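User: I'm new to structure prediction. If I give you an amino acid sequence, what do you actually give back? Let's try with this one:
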Amino acid sequence: MTRSSLYFLHQAAEIMEKTNSASRFVDLVQTKKSFEDIKYWTWSEMLIALKQCQESPSLTNSSIMLKKCIDLLSQKISLADGASSSASSVNSSRFRSSCDSKSTESLKTNFASTTWWFEDLLFFSTECLEMFVQSMVSHEFDQVLLSKFLIHFQKSKFFNATSDVKMKVIESVIDMLDTLDENVLSLKALFDILRVTLGLNINKGSKNRLEAMIGSKLGHATLDNLLVPSPYGANYLYDVNLVLRLFKAFLSGGINQVSPSQLAKAANLMDSYMAEVAPDPCLKSSKFLALAKVIPDSARKSYDEMYYAIDLYFEMHVGMSEEEKEKICCALNHKKLSYEVRIHLSKNPKFPLKSTPSSPESQQPEAENLLQNINYSKSLISWPHNLTEGINTDEKEDKSSEQIVLYHGKFDLPADNERFKVHLEGMQWRVLELEKLCRKMQTQMRKILKSRVASSYCQVKSLPKLCS
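Assistant: Good question. You get back a string of structure tokens that encode the predicted 3D arrangement of the chain. For your 468 residues, that looks like this:
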């Protein structure tokens, strides 16, 4: 009984067992006894046996021989690459003595080429591939190297393959990558796989798993990663629906599960993406609005970049109705717009009137508060006089310079002046700056006057008495 004929003997033993042959027990025992010798097979003999297993149409995935061969193959690779921590020292010595020249050379060269086994396993079917990956994971093999093998397997299998074969291979590779640690694959590699699937009608489960893997790393993505062409037959330029799904996957665990820095990066990335897709004349307003709302408000510190993206979208879509514009403008949080952007918004004819920071009815009380601050700043003009009084009264700080002169009159804003609040806010900002400057000067002058008074007092006290 030779090693190369073991597979055929095993098949014959199974057939004899089914036909109740009188000698089936003896043959089956001899065949199964030969299984124990598999651990001493060389690498080449193991590959021959695996190829024979795959070529048999009657062999199922649960075949004892196939599983045993793949498991022993995984252990040999783990031993050669020094990645298995579960193999015992006894088995290790057996495997080392049974490795052929190829694996032995790899050991002698201190694992100079950790991918030496990649090409030998390209004959795997998708079923054998899944069994192999599961076995390698169970032996605690380096998952980074295992992911590289899966990518290499996918690229090699795609040469001269039909669409059905490509679809089956890429689905199997995605499913196996999903079983590995999420940190073993780079985001670029995942997007490369995503682009491969664009022309293939892969099943929904594999597609969702791939998008979930990408979504978990979206905080590290770049704008170029997101610029995926739209599906065949679509009239818009980029696949906006895909980007929406990726961001939803990114936030699927809840906003509290994402670090603030990653949220900020994702918000900036979305703003850049919106600015990139805004000129597309075929992009519907509903899709653009969905992009604007996919990132929660709490994740944004500023809405300035989103405003510029919306401004560009309005410029390229001149036929939009006021209602459509108002829906998009509702995504803006005016409280998180900078002063310059609010000034620009107040003068922007492309935006609807209702999109201004606040309505005229709400401007009157705020305007009154602004005038109060202006009157307060005027009261600071008299600070030198108050300062002198403070020094002459035991150096107590005079509070009169900080009193606010209230404006009790009714401030009547014209109903048609919708931009008045923005200009008043600018005045308030300048008044606050003047207040800070006045307080600083007031403190400095108080110190100067104190030093002068103290100096003059010392000089008078030190004068000599001319008369006794």
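You can read the tokens as a compact description of the fold. Here is one thing that stands out. The mean pLDDT is 75.
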